């Protein structure tokens, strides 16, 4: 008998986690990376959270949400860490929901297994793939992220790439170079989102955040690389 999926939490209603759709968000527990700016560090450990429902309970609840919700989004942590994720997506698809995924692409093989079920993906790009370890603190993380992005682009899944940025982790030139890499790869929509101190457990990052990063000229250079670009600033006290 397979162990139950490890659930970190459930948001029963969201209008912002799947563009244009009303969704619930299932948070899966566990992440192999240790990004300093992570705003969900409580989901890094691979363990079922006591306050979270079991997956079987979520499936029963989802049957009552048909006609009320459009989609189910799997997030984390890193949802691809869950071995049963393809089976979970299959069960959700059978109920008639669209499926979204928030992922950093840590497990390309499992992502490939999930591709037939996916309708939309929010893909987290940490930095230039050659510089990933600076953000994730894990050797080889850039290679698997790059492989996952190639799978998504080849699979023609509706895709939004986004990067959380911080002046201690990304220079202005690195951001422009990253945009060029993604544009050349075929990314159409890209979102830059400023570091958010909420949830961060790294005082050095909190104390070194800047209000005016990146500069307008950098944003302009990035914007021209994509059919759709958005910058989401965060005010830092």
From TrEMBL:
Pfam families: Radical_SAM (PF04055). Its cofactor is [4Fe-4S] cluster. SUPFAM superfamilies: Radical SAM enzymes. Residues 17-230 form the Radical SAM core domain. Keywords: 4Fe-4S, Iron, Iron-sulfur, Metal-binding, S-adenosyl-L-methionine. Gene3D superfamilies: Aldolase class I. The keyword S-adenosyl-L-methionine applies. This is Anaerobic ribonucleoside-triphosphate reductase activating protein.
